[in-house]
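Technical appendix A lists one of the benchmark inputs used to test multi-chain prediction within the project. The record comprises two sequence entries:
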Amino acid sequence: MLKPDYDLLPALSGEDTTKDFFQELVNILLSYVCKSFRRSSKVLDFHHPHQLREGLEGFSLELPDQPENLEQLLVDCRDTLKYGVKTGHPRFFNQLSSGLDVIGLAGEWLTSTANTNMFTYEVSPVFILMEEVLLRKMQEIVGWSEEEGDGVFCPGGTMSNLYSVLLARYHFFPEVKTKGMTALPRLILFTSAHSHYSVKKSAAVLGIGSENVVVVKCNDRGKMIPAELESSIITAKDQGCVPFYVNATAGTTVYGAFDPLNAIADICESHGLWLHVDAAWGGGLLMSNLHRVKLQGIERAWSVTWNPHKMMGAPLQCSAILVKKRGLLKDCNQMCAEYLFQTDKHYDTSYDTGDKTIQCGRHVDVFKLWLMWKAKGSEGFGSQVNKCLENAEHLFDKLNQRPDFELVFKSKPEHSNVCFWYIPPSLRNMPPGPERNRRLHEVAPKIKAKMMEQGMAMIGYQPLGDKVNFFRCVFSNPATQTEDVDYLLEEIASLGHDICIRIETDL
Amino acid sequence: MLKPDYDLLPALSGEDTTKDFFQELVNILLSYVCKSFRRSSKVLDFHHPHQLREGLEGFSLELPDQPENLEQLLVDCRDTLKYGVKTGHPRFFNQLSSGLDVIGLAGEWLTSTANTNMFTYEVSPVFILMEEVLLRKMQEIVGWSEEEGDGVFCPGGTMSNLYSVLLARYHFFPEVKTKGMTALPRLILFTSAHSHYSVKKSAAVLGIGSENVVVVKCNDRGKMIPAELESSIITAKDQGCVPFYVNATAGTTVYGAFDPLNAIADICESHGLWLHVDAAWGGGLLMSNLHRVKLQGIERAWSVTWNPHKMMGAPLQCSAILVKKRGLLKDCNQMCAEYLFQTDKHYDTSYDTGDKTIQCGRHVDVFKLWLMWKAKGSEGFGSQVNKCLENAEHLFDKLNQRPDFELVFKSKPEHSNVCFWYIPPSLRNMPPGPERNRRLHEVAPKIKAKMMEQGMAMIGYQPLGDKVNFFRCVFSNPATQTEDVDYLLEEIASLGHDICIRIETDL
């Protein structure tokens, strides 16, 4: 019964025990990885919070005063994976981030072994340079010239979007850094009704206020209507407010819609506003020669959010904020802490990039992406994106052919999002109206609950605007094949049929 | 010459190739881990940015269009580690975060294999519950009652401190979330001259403005002077401003000083101000029965930052913001995005904690800490802290005995920070004054540059207030022994002697 602190490194002669322990751990982890890709294995083994809290089959979450032994720790590791969710499973459709890229995983293992911090070159020489190389490449793909472009990797797309608002505010009102918002006029931001909630969240955090985010109307397809944007800007100006920032979305969260970037860029130019493009989800399409046309105009953005942990399949987290104007990140955020960013170091301290960020310590999120890029090449990412969009088109075609499903919008998907309702038999001939909506609204949550209990697939749902609860299927996992898409539809139809029959009988 | 995308999972029959690839990777990683603990190995193999940029011995950072083969990827992994810094080495004294806890590392490997997101219970059931258990335990250790306490793990101590300011502002002025700072009076924050720069950074980001952070004077030992705090508060009020928040530091970055928490809490109570305790660095001492007395009064804080990735040795990143008032995090940050936080789910959605945060997706930072806690028990963390502080005392004693070193402050270290100058022979008999200071200021950077080139140890330096550049040694790595402390002193003395002789000769 070995105790970790006495037997593992740094204990003297701890090398062998450490290696043996890791060998057993690696067996557990790799067997989980292999299982994640097998269609015969479940996506999840669902338990309610109180069940897990009480301890299942001896799996106790409580923290002890005394050390446990190595065997118990390995059992805990096995249990942790057992009761979790296999986000890499080909039938996990629940999130924009899915899949388990094994090279990305290898990158994460190395990153955690290196266990260092992105703030200075002296402790992260290689990773700092990899970040520079990756950011430059992404800027080039966005279409910025060699003289333009700066950026930083940060903890998620919401943070990247927050950076964009922070930078825009500083660009127009640099005094905000020292004097705060009370020195400024009432600022107004614009974003579409279908955009991500992080724009409002950023306004709340930054002290601008969520009410100062004007929500611009979208068309049926979820795209911002440029004329609506323009009239909103004029209205805000007429009210004595100061518009300064527009967020356009390239790949909305639910519909996967692309805002018309060029038309929006024209409006931003004529009013002198900062154009941010939230391509957290859609950015991956830039890697595909077939699909990058959907982001035409992105090169006119002043800043871009792009999450390789979504469509490019990098492990969580991996999100970049790209900024066109060089030096702005540093001017906006630097505080010149002398204990960290000494100016009398013996190397080129422009590589101490930590002072450009709103963090101090920063996790290394770049290595996994760098290694994946080496493993796939730019072209490999392109094929991966194409495949995901083919799956979406396959699902769209199938749905079009079935009487028991209804599409939320009739046009072909632009991204890999496909939105649809399952229509139970009793609703198929019911005329549209509040009663049908009321009943349809309950269908998706019921099917999802049952699906999670059975554990063979996972998909998300939500209401949106005047649309009651519908399923949103998204594809970002290259392991998913058309057979998995077919399986999902059959699963929904069969669960839906059962549940609805039961409800009818109960009535 | 295997190509990753054709041969690894999810490729059909990719299981064996995947396992073989990981086996080779694990050999590389474990050999690095073992080397990190060996005193005969170098801490780093320094190269300037332009040297790494140009490619060393075939190590190219450039991103290809076409895939590389698996052998090349393994070579890249080896090179990445080779040119990095061994932050787990017993002679790496450069950062508050050091060491390589192998159980923590195992936790990170599992975390990245699980590759999921902390926003909802449905995709992170086990990790969400582990976060709850850890936060509850930490709140209990801080000294809050069972009815109090909330919190969240977030990407680093600067973010945790930003949360504290955000929450304090919302607590007093909830309208700020929707209306922004323009609806508010001029708010003032207080923090000590020795506190971390993140308080000013937070004020800048949140739109309060860095000039509205009042820097309170410290005594010689780097502790905030309560009378100075009180008079600053009164002055601010007299000027028509609204004080609302005080940051007290438990373990300052450079001196490792503890602010007098009870005295500060008294002042906050009498003026009705939010008391935050930044225990990012000092929080670990709460685990030690010997040293937790230094944080007396922390239970009176309204919020606490505590970074287990510092003194408790958890891998990067692992930082918690603890909040006394339950529900505040949610009220302040929630945006109720319906695609993620549906209220008609079939489980208890109070476990969908993502809406409490300022992020959307959030990295799993809890598992490594949970596993380490199982491996060490609370008592194991206590012993680890005690050992680090014994090393600091050993260094302090040694410095006291030597004529070639001078302590920055004469009293025994409270935390594991020890601050000192190396005094070259030519300065030993020079009277204090500007000329001596000018020359002394150049000593530490020169020694550090030479030390990094030789690569056998790493230590930080900085100026502070009227003190010219001095070394700050910190201990958070349980692998460090007193022999390493002795080695460091000899190394500094020998490099310092050589350098100074050379300078004298040049003159």
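The longest strand of chain B covers residues 242-249. The two ends of chain B are 59 Å apart (CA to CA). Comparable benchmark entries are summarised in Table A2.
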